[in-house]
Amino acid sequence: MLLYMYTDTLEALGWESASLLYAAADKYELLILKDLCSSILKDNLCSSNACELLVFADTHHDHDMKKFAQEYILNHPNEVMSSNNWKDFVKHYGSLAAETLTLNFLCE
């Protein structure tokens, strides 16, 4: 975060680093850095981390990221919902899973 604040540059970040930096940027209201990290997280979205991103977005009240993750899940149901990640997600975040699945019916 300090590198970004002093140089206005961002090194290549992986999923874990981007999520940690996003959380710090959210806490300290560094909106541009938060948006950059959000883009990295969205660009690296896949079936194995879709549920994680959805929980992350919901926790940080990021409605755009949440919608992005929900749309990904609904557009890739076979890949996402056949995984153990989905089963754990439903077990621990049932209301968020229900909210996501309900969107599928509201869009039709």
Automatic annotation (TrEMBL):
PANTHER family assigned: SPECKLE-TYPE POZ PROTEIN (PTHR24413)
UniProt-listed InterPro entries: SKP1/BTB/POZ_sf
Gene3D superfamilies named among the record's database cross-references: 1.25.40.420, Potassium Channel Kv1.1, Chain A
The organism of origin for this protein: Caerostris extrusa (Bark spider)
Name the record gives this protein: TD and POZ domain-containing protein 1
